[in-house]
Amino acid sequence: MEIPQDLANYLKVEIDQWDVAHIVCLKCRKKFFTVKDAALHLYHIHGVKMAQKYAEA
């Protein structure tokens, strides 16, 4: 799982205790399974405009 470079300041990948990878929002610590879901969250909740292109993909 790879985070797009322009969203790297807002998201990071973490592995939980069961070896499951999650994308974590660095602003509120909410967890996601896909970049699209994380980008939707960033765009609608935190107003990160550059996340819109990943949310629509």
Commentary on this structure:
- With 57 residues, the chain is α+β, with helices and mostly antiparallel strands.
- It is 26% helix and 21% strand.
- It contains two helices and three strands.
- The protein has a three-stranded antiparallel β-sheet with strand order 1-2-3, covered by helices on one side.
- The chain is globular, with a radius of gyration of 11 Å.
Keywords, separated by commas or semicolons:
three-stranded antiparallel sheet; 2 helices
Q: Would you kindly provide a brief summary of this structure?
A:
With 57 residues, this protein is an alpha+beta fold. 26% of the residues lie in helices and 21% in strands. The protein contains two helices and three strands; from the N terminus they run E-E-E-H-H.
Strand content: 15-25%
Q: What's the number of helices?
A: 2
Structural classification: alpha+beta
The average pLDDT score comes to 95
What is the CA-atom radius of gyration, in angstroms?
11 Å
**What composes the largest sheet?**
3 strands, antiparallel
Which ranges are low-confidence, i.e. pLDDT below 50, for 5 or more consecutive residues? none
